[in-house]
Design brief:
This protein has seven helices and two strands; from the N terminus they run ααββααααα. The chain has 134 residues and is mostly helical. The protein is globular and about 35 Å long.
Length: 134
């Protein structure tokens, strides 16, 4: 089943950003663009052997890194994001939440942007931003 861009924006991205107290039109537009590009790329490329999950095509190392290197030092945001995850399934299969829970995946995509805003602009290894400035 497909989700239209309007549904994604109005029923997933916007409410998720609001629940994180991070809403802005720019943030919403950025996440929409990321989702659209990731979906186009996943349809064009054969990514079945990759372990990229969900509408934002987030891989396991990025998911782990954002928790270990960014959210661990931003407990308020981490708590809000963890609150979006399933109570039991997240503990059993945390990476599958990226595919099965659109709000959680959106929150992680936003956290990745906050932690690594230059990740796509440079080829250098991204450094983690100070969570107090986010």
């Amino acid at each position: 089943m497909d989700l239209s861009p309007k549904e994604l924006r109005e029923m997933v991205i916007r409410p998720t950003l609001v629940s994180l107290d991070k809403y802005s039109q720019a943030a919403e537009n950025l996440l929409m663009a990321i989702a659209m590009v990731k979906q186009e790329n996943s349809q064009r490329l054969d990514t079945q052997c990759d372990k990229n999950y969900g509408i934002f095509q987030i891989d396991v190392p990025s998911h782990q890194r954002v928790w270990d290197k960014y959210l661990a030092f931003n407990p308020e945001l981490a708590s809000k994001i963890r609150g979006l995850a399933s109570q039991r399934e997240f503990l059993k299969h945390p990476h599958l939440e990226l595919a099965t829970n659109l709000s959680y995946a959106t929150a992680i995509a936003w956290a990745l942007h906050l932690a690594y805003p230059q990740a796509k602009k440079t080829s250098a290894s991204p450094s983690v931003r100070n969570p107090q400035t986010s």
